[in-house]
Amino acid sequence: MSMSLGRVLGAASAVIGAGFLFFLIPWQTDVVPAVGLVPRAFPTIAAVLIIVTGLAQWIKPTGTAIFEGDKVLKAVFVVAACLVATFALEVVGYLYTAPVLVGAIMLLSGERRWLWYIVGLVVMPTFIWLVFEIVLRRPLP
User: What's this model's pTM, rounded to 2 decimal places?
Assistant: First the structure.
């Protein structure tokens, strides 16, 4: 089995997902007694999906990866924006942070259709807030 970039990225994704599953999620979520859906349910599902897809990429990589400077810079910007948004969540909250982050990523990815901006900046954050805060009664930051 040759060690292609796809395999390296797949293995790295699986390791990061395992780190989320076994360290970060238990550390950052609380156990709430007598609740139908525990707070770590959605993060655990996401971590398991990251592990499974990482392993799939490691076992059977597809295509080739070519690093282009402008795309690498955009990826670095997205990671940095997500880190800044993580800290902003604690300061200003979800309803203000999520639309700004989504809008920045949509601009960076080249989206120019105003309808999709409305969906990304207003509809989706509001829907997510309603599901977690109202339906599931789980507070968002």
Answer: 0.61
